[in-house]
Amino acid sequence: MVSTAGTVAAFVWPVDTGRAIRKAYPRRGEDLQLLLGLNEDKLAALKGIRNSMMHLDERIEESYLADPKLGFSMWMTRTEPCKGRNFMSWNPETEVFSFLEHEVCVPDLCEILALIERRASNAFLLMLRVEDVDDEATTHGSVARRFGLES
What we know:
Elements: H1 2-12, H2 20-24, H3 28-36, H4 44-53, H5 56-66, E1 76-77, E2 88-91, E3 96-99, E4 102-105, H6 106-131, H7 143-146
Parallel strand pairs: 1-2
Antiparallel strand pairs: 2-3, 3-4
């Protein structure tokens, strides 16, 4: 579920990598946010997960190089907060998953992902209906063309 949240966030808030596909669709993130009606404040958990996962190997190396003698836990299940060099932990009492420096409430994350799934399905169905309308009748042209979905 956490990797799914990171993947969703990467689509909604893409990082400019300089790759050709990013240049071909520079507004992908903004368009998806508008199409799905996403509120960035409510979805901060997704963005935090994406940011924690990016360049994970480099972050672990930097942490180790800063103090090689300090321990680094890969996984913990505990009820007290996990701070410092914690890779992943789960608190069964609060239902909080910690990933590096980021914490996310799992029930809230499930709710956000379910909302995105519903809105994405609705947006896709709407796109199919709009596609039946003559392009001249719409002010922004074909939705499928705008999102690069034309065959």
